[in-house]
Amino acid sequence: xxxxxxxxxxxxxxxxxxxxxxxxxxxxxxxxxxxxxxxxxxxxxxxxxxxxxxxxxxxxxxxxxxxxxxxxxxxxxxxxxxxx
Length: 84
What we know:
Elements: E1 3-13, E2 17-26, E3 29-43, E4 46-57, H1 66-82
Antiparallel strand pairs: 1-2, 2-3, 3-4
């Protein structure tokens, strides 16, 4: 099985906001189209990252929460890499 992730950045404001859209395929079948926003905000000497994503799952594709789990895993890995 081949999984592809084709993304396009829609809006980039350094140190503030990143908006991107993406399409995912399994083999040749398009399974979803999504819009994601990552916002950075400084509070009390720390940076708060807020991630919002809207996904459309196509042709009865059942994600079963794996997209959220995968994103959470990647964000946890990012957080771990930033710890002193």
